């Protein structure tokens, strides 16, 4: 399975902060925002990742992330000239995917759960259809909303409904089978002129191959695309790391836990940032797990 990390868009909901830089490069506590969905893809076991950016921001992403070898993965970069919808990512990357199944993560999303790696790998191993994750929110009108029947089976997904039928929002993490590019080519622009990911998901739902996994208690999902949610995400990460001593959204730690890099490579990451708490935590992870080996 390959992964796409969509980090384009103009970030207008975060102006003026995003007038000078990409939204996905803004800090969420002690890391760039893009580190969090990148860690999620790595925890899913994905090593071949395409990063889609705006044309003028791409050099900044390359300077931050390089070719991926420091995390034991491979990065490919593509541009999205205009924000024409999330589903456009599959058209941009169609030749690169070359018929492979794919996971798509939005660059402003953070998911945290103790059992997240297991859920991700289960989704990655499903051979047919698509998997999305739903999370209860107080403002479902901002998202794609999924409704269920009395047996808990998904019935419908509606994009940003004025009167939501449920408070279950579809998060910015999606898994698709090898047919996703063919399906994406059938999506037509919505009233707002975008290729909606909700329409793609609805196509899988209509054929009975969409799996909706619920993120319940013990899980946290944060969309950091607005000032309030950006601050909430940073506060959440700070609380977990300071209170429990657990790293949140570190690609280096995720790569180490997946076996993509070894303890000495993780220590090298820590030494590069030895003046920061993040660097010290990476060194601690390497030393603790090495002592248990």
Keywords:
alpha/beta, 13 strands, Nucleotide-diphossugar_trans
CATH class of the largest domain: Alpha Beta
Major sheet: 7 strands, mixed
The secondary-structure class comes to alpha/beta
- Beta-strand percent range: 15-25%
CATH superfamily of the largest domain: Spore Coat Polysaccharide Biosynthesis Protein SpsA, Chain A
Number of helices: 11
Record field, number of beta strands: 13
The overall average pLDDT, rounded, is 94
Could you give the order of strands across the largest sheet? 5-4-1-6-11-8-12
User: Per CATH, what is the topology of the largest domain?
Assistant: Spore Coat Polysaccharide Biosynthesis Protein SpsA, Chain A
Low-confidence stretches: none
**Domain module tally:** 2
Structure description:
This protein folds into two domains: about 1-260, Spore Coat Polysaccharide Biosynthesis Protein SpsA, Chain A; about 260-290, no CATH class. A hairpin with a 5-residue loop joins strand 9 (about 145-150) and strand 10 (about 155-160). It has a seven-stranded mixed sheet. The chain has helices at about 35-45, 60-65, 90, 95, 115-125, 180-185, 195-205, 225-245, 250-255, 265-270, 275-290; strands at about 1-5, 25-30, 30, 50-55, 75-80, 100-105, 110-115, 130-135, 145-150, 155-160, 170-175, 210-215, 220-225. The longest helix is centred in the C-terminal third of the chain and has 18 residues, at about 225-245. The chain is globular, with a radius of gyration of 18 Å. With about 290 residues, it is an alpha/beta fold.
């Amino acid at each position: 399975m390959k992964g796409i990390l969509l980090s384009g868009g103009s970030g207008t909901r975060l102006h003026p902060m995003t007038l000078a830089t990409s939204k996905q490069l803004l800090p969420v506590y002690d890391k760039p925002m893009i580190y969090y969905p990148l860690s999620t893809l790595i925890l899913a076991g994905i090593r071949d990742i395409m990063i889609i950016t705006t044309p003028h921001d791409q050099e900044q992403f390359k300077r931050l992330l390089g070719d991926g070898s420091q995390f034991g993965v491979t990065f490919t970069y593509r541009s999205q000239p205009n924000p024409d919808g999330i589903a456009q990512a599959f058209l941009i990357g169609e030749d690169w995917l070359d018929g492979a199944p794919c996971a798509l993560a939005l660059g402003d999303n953070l998911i945290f759960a103790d059992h997240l790696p297991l859920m991700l790998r289960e989704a990655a191993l499903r051979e047919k259809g698509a998997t999305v994750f739903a999370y209860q929110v107080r403002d479902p009108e901002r998202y794609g909303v999924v409704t269920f029947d009395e047996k808990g089976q998904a019935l419908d997904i509606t994009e940003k409904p004025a009167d939501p039928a449920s408070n279950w929002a579809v998060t910015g993490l999606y898994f698709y089978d090898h047919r996703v590019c063919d399906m994406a080519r059938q999506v037509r622009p919505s009233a707002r002129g975008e290729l909606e990911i909700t329409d793609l998901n609805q196509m899988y739902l209509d054929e009975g191959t969409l799996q909706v996994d619920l993120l319940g208690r013990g899980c946290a999902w944060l969309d950091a695309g607005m000032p309030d949610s950006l601050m909430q995400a940073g506060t959440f990460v700070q609380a977990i790391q300071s209170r429990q001593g657990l790293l949140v959204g570190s690609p280096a730690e995720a790569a180490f836990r997946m076996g993509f890099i070894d303890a000495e490579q993780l220590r090298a990451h820590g030494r590069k940032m030895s003046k920061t708490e993040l660097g010290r935590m990476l060194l601690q992870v390497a030393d603790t797990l090495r002592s248990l080996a």
